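Question:
Write out your own:
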Amino acid sequence: SSIHYVEDWRSLTAQLRGYGPRALLFADVPSGPIPRTVATRQHFYGQRIPGWLFRDEEFVEAVARDGYTLALRAPFRRPYFGRDIAPPMSALPPAYQMPHFWQYMFTRDRTP
């Protein structure tokens, strides 16, 4: 639930794959069918925090390597401001707004 705050997120996913786990799980990933992966500034309780919005296909392609494949992609919902609403993204152009974020599970092929 924090990959979108990592500046070099691609290198981190490579490092995680390098440990050789049977599965990788990413939750609360701000991704969707947006035009491209972009860096943004998130307003968070008076702070501005840099983060990524991922183009879904780009995120999957970056993680599904070295024997890992996408095994699960499911909507991730959580409350915002104590209510069940879409992520607050009204400051973004409509093409980058998402109704929810995603959770992903990638599994490693066990073939020798």
Observations:
- The beta strands are 23-29, 31-32, 38-44, 47-55, 68-76, 101-108.
- The chain has a mean pLDDT of 92.
